[in-house]
Amino acid sequence: MDKKRAHENGQSLVLIALLMIGMIAFLGLVIDGGQIYVVRRNAQDSADSAAFAGVRKLALRSDDSAATAISISNTVSSFASENSTALPNDIEGYFIDQYGNNICKLPCTSVPSSPLATGVRVTVTIRYQPSFINLVIGDNPIPMPAVAAAQSGTPLAAGNIMPVVVPLSDTIYAMSNITYNQAFDIWGDKIVSGSFQWISFGCVSNPQDVSQYLDPNNTTSPPLVVADPTGMSKDPTMAPVESWVCTSPGAENNSEVRTALDGWLSKPESARHWLVPVFDYCYLKGKSCTPGSQAQYHIVKFAEVVLLGYDMGGKPQSAIDLKPPFNKCVDPSNKKCIEAKFIKFVTADEMQFKPGSCNTNGMAICGIGLSQ
Fold first, then answer.
1. Beta strand pairing status for 119-128 and 91-96?
2. Per residue in 128-151, is it b (16+ CB within 10 Å) or e — as a string?
3. β-pairing, 273-284 with 287-288?
4. Do 134 and 205 belong to one domain?
């Protein structure tokens, strides 16, 4: 009897050893599998950010020179490297046309114009060295490639985006309180505390931006890349590229600004429709703030309004066809204001775009989004 029990004990040890080998192998697969997922996600995030950065640089370019093509290529490589552990030889970029076809490998000799480069495709490969799987596949690292493409084009509702910002909520002037055809002050010293809400797209501080953006006849104003509510993005939670704007301090009540506004007021109502950015949050030096001239504003949507008139200090100017004419601010405590009537919020569908040339009529406007 004792010999039989000893023999059975030996069988148990063999079974336990086999089970432990299986458990260790399974644990190794779980650990390596988890790490592979992380590396794959890292590669995809890197490719996404590099494609976005590259197409933004492409959309904002001032020429098609070799230097510009190299600058776009360097931007792609820089963003891909900063967001991953990929080696330079494992980062590959291409200019693509509106149909998503590769045109040339970065860096190209110039920005292609025929076919027109409308986007950037980026492949980022991270090579992962597993801890357990290499017992099966050997010591060679596993390549983990990820591909992303971003496109640019003119948004359907691209016309007449203006350099003013209005609050979504939390104030008496909030857009959430405004109804269709209601007149309200979209600009004034009481609307956003401490600021007249002239804004700089891309937070570029240039006092000439305001008059250039306002000028209805200007075709050389600073370009603007709008947010990404395009529907093209495979990740709808991705933050817009240009979701933050900065205010410009002071009223900038100069002749260039007034001349630009007068140009708008001379147009019929059908031609005085503006898109104004609407913000939900602002910050100052990295923390929540009371809005002011040094703040940055987080844009969440655009509102369509019709310009009615303005008062830059004691001499109201009214739209040519407005009856009765504009003669004072909606808020009498505003010493200066621009008045408009609310039409609607612009939907995400209206901000969609088809890949192609960016708008060059008036302000140069591009929409961008991930297409792959």
1. antiparallel
2. bebebbeeeeeeeebebbbbbbbb
3. antiparallel
4. no
Q: Say if residue 143 is in the same domain as residue 256.
A: no
* Judgement on whether residues 176 and 249 belong to the same structural domain of the protein: yes
- pLDDT value, residue 227: 44
Backbone dihedral angles phi then psi of residue 330, each to the nearest 5 degrees: -60, -45
Give per-residue pLDDT as tens, 247-279. 766 677 888 889 989 999 999 999 999 888 888
Question: Which two tokens mark 348?
Answer: 């995400």
Would you say residue 159 lies in a domain? Answer: no
**100 and 221 housed in the same domain:** no
User: By residue range, what is the domain housing residue 365?
Assistant: 166-370
Residue 115 and residue 62 share a domain: yes
Note whether residue 158 is domain-resident.
no
β strands within the chain, DSSP E:
91-96, 102-105, 119-128, 142-153, 166-167, 183-188, 199-201, 224-225, 244-247, 273-284, 287-288, 296-311, 317-318, 337-345, 365-370
Structural domains in the chain (count): 2
Token output for 88: 């330079």
* Residue-wise pLDDT tens digits, 102-140: 999 999 999 999 899 999 999 999 888 776 655 555 567
Question: Burial letters for 273-284: b for 16+ Cβ neighbours within 10 Å, e otherwise?
Answer: bbbbbbbebbee
Residue whose structure tokens are 């569908």: 349
Max CA distance (Å), the chain: 114
Among the listed residues 251, 252, 248, 257, the one whose alpha carbon sits nearest the alpha carbon of residue 317:
257
Residue among 350, 77, 342, 341 nearest 226 (CA): 350
- Tens of pLDDT along 292-332? 556 777 777 788 999 999 998 878 999 999 999 998 888 88
Tell me the per-residue pLDDT of 192-248, one tens digit each, with 9 for 90 and over: 655 667 777 656 555 456 777 788 776 555 455 554 433 333 333 333 434 667 776
Q: Is this prediction's pTM over 0.70?
A: no
